[in-house]
Amino acid sequence: MPEGDTIWLTAHRLHGALAGRLLTRSDLRVPKLATVDLTGRTVIDVTPRGKHLLTRIEGGLTLHSHLRMDGSWRLFTAGERWRGGPDHQIRAVLGTAEQTAVGYRLPVLDLLRTVDEPTVVGHLGPDLLGPDWDFEEAVRRVVADPARPLGEALLDQRNLAGIGNVYKCELAWLARVTPWLPVGELETGVPERLVATAHRLLEANKHRFDRRTMPGDRPDRRLYVYGRLRRSCYRCGTPIRKHGADDDPRDRVSYWCPGCQAGPAPTD
């Protein structure tokens, strides 16, 4: 599932291509929006909110999309062949005279009044990459339920918006604890360091799609544990383990090192 940094960059690119420009093509390929025509309207802006994308359009309208596990928005210049999947996977087309944005495999696509945006994003906690970022509030929400496993607390978008499985696993490794350790068992100061590190890492990655949490620029060393099943831990050499399936619709796969990450392992 794309995480907050990927959504920020996607919004940034869409905003640069569409904002301030007149829509010359509009095609929303979901049944409830099949008769909607946005041509002739100007795109005002494209704003990320956690893992949500808000495309605001003249007339007080917002096209809300969420990529979930494998959705994407692609940009193409006029006359360029669309590449992103077969045509039957296209859910949205927004075109200007210069560029066309094509949304593939979008599981969430809604058109609502801009004033009603809180109905789809109002539940979110402080946005790690948003203008409303509030470090103290994010920490307060993460530690509010001491019995909750750390991984669940980090993934809960009501606590802080933008973290997905990659950052969940990387943050737990950096803190030397498993994702299943209850938040209340973290040592003093660790929740604050986790939240600060999450903010720093998303900020560092928001301008690139090839996310990395490790220092340096080696292409073979980008992440500490995520996606490294059975490979040696960079810290202690123990083989990395994995829990959960990649095709799980709940998207709760976890990678961790049983050698140097303290805390419980998954029970199922």
TrEMBL record:
It comes from the Bacteria. Pfam families: Fapy_DNA_glyco (PF01149), H2TH (PF06831). Residues 224-262 form the FPG-type domain. One of its GO terms (molecular function) is zinc ion binding. PROSITE patterns: FPG_CAT (PS51068), ZF_FPG_1 (PS01242), ZF_FPG_2 (PS51066). GO terms for biological process: base-excision repair. InterPro entries: DNA_glyclase_Znf_dom_DNA_BS, FPG_cat, FPG_N, H2TH_FPG, Nei2_N, Ribosomal_uS13-like_H2TH, Znf_DNA_glyclase/AP_lyase. This is DNA-(apurinic or apyrimidinic site) lyase.
